[in-house]
Amino acid sequence: MYKLDFSHPCSLYFVGIGGISMCCLAELLADGPLSVEMRDYNRMERVGPLGADLPANDEWIDAQAGDLILYQGNQLVIYYGVNSWSLTRLGRIEGVGAGELRDILGGGDVRVTLSMG
What we know:
Elements: E1 2-6, E2 11-16, H1 20-30, E3 34-41, E4 45-49, E5 59-63, E6 67-71, E7 75-79, E8 83-93, H2 98-105, E9 110-116
Antiparallel strand pairs: 1-2, 1-9, 2-8, 3-4, 3-9, 4-7, 5-8, 6-7, 6-8
């Protein structure tokens, strides 16, 4: 299990989905927490640069609220809406609905810190 801390007081946990992309992200997190500045995109997701390139394993998926996605091998995406696209799923935030996740992410930019949890 991995932890997400947000720039405002809130922490959530996500379960990593197996695969080379998540294994590489876990290796990064083994070296310490990773902070990502995220901005809203199309009122369905937050996206921000990881600061590293990870191998992608894109496949056509129906992304849902709570999905953590690797986009273009170097961008972290957290969905609070839905989208169908060729993407690499990294993990899933458990126990939080779309509305609650939208509230947690807030209306503006947000800093998310990923860590081993």
